[in-house]
What we know:
The protein is of the alpha+beta class. It is built from 20 helices and 9 strands.
Amino acid sequence: xxxxxxxxxxxxxxxxxxxxxxxxxxxxxxxxxxxxxxxxxxxxxxxxxxxxxxxxxxxxxxxxxxxxxxxxxxxxxxxxxxxxxxxxxxxxxxxxxxxxxxxxxxxxxxxxxxxxxxxxxxxxxxxxxxxxxxxxxxxxxxxxxxxxxxxxxxxxxxxxxxxxxxxxxxxxxxxxxxxxxxxxxxxxxxxxxxxxxxxxxxxxxxxxxxxxxxxxxxxxxxxxxxxxxxxxxxxxxxxxxxxxxxxxxxxxxxxxxxxxxxxxxxxxxxxxxxxxxxxxxxxxxxxxxxxxxxxxxxxxxxxxxxxxxxxxxxxxxxxxxxxxxxxxxxxxxxxxxxxxxxxxxxxxxxxxxxxxxxxxxxxxxxxxxxxxxxxxxxxxxxxxxxxxxxxxxxxxxxxxxxxxxxxxxxxxxxxxxxxxxxxxxxxxxxxxxxxxxxxxx
Length: 441
């Protein structure tokens, strides 16, 4: 397996990470492991498309929000393979620091999963092994969901990751509240105007504690996940092709901000939205307190289990169309693994029909293979089928400094949308330029 780690990109990124407190000095100069006799670092063509399953113990790290999905995959793999995976669940807020410290000390696990919007930064700093030959060698390589592969692809075209957990954004509505408000409970909004009208209709019920809509008004990650699709559905882009320029001052982007500003003025946004950091972002809808909002598909079943009769559709654009943010986590083999062939065995199995259907789809998750989105398990659940079909056209923005520009607390993106929707400062152009300044550092 080739490991075409870029010395210049890694050194530049390492210095920047050191400034950020992650101290990943010299990553690209580090070897990915020793040449052992167990096939761990054998070239891809010698280990075959399935890698090596010889009883090796592998280590894996993943974020706490994905614990359920990770445990299901690891348990199924361990029960059917000689190799055994030891899973460590990392608190979400601790992941960046732990990965940075481990990378500095050459102590990353064999298998490393990360948020798709953070992966370009990790790849640029040499944290992963190049798996281009392995991924391209799969019979179904062209069938794998592209967003999770693209997020781990460097500017030279080297591929490092495959889908681990797929999370998409959807529009949801409370059918019972819609019926009370005189709306058709089977029809969600098909454009931004209908979204506003339907939210205001629910608000007009005057039910204590119930609001028309809700959003993470202090959560950058929440709003890239749920607002970017409206811009895509309107035919516009959110970033330049190289990920260095923000395009969030377009007419369609402005229409999104104006819609929420109007909903705020109408009192149709739930109390607490302005302070919402994402920690309780999905709770109001699951509690039956929200009429309609953008939502993560992974939280839809929790709302359903809580007794909400949920309607689901794609996130609409200004004048129609629909799109979704293809999020979640991708996984690759770290630069420090001494068992690359064995770790690839896990990844090859994870993307196989067996795992995608009998573990992922069976558990109500979205497969990472386009041809498997319409599967027997989804056919039994209209909600799952709707969400799976949306995933086929999902988008994932790729930028090395995405997290700094958008997800970080107090990021310029947070400043932009708060200025546009709460404070109405009229500074979208200037705030958009501030995002570009971070992306293009």
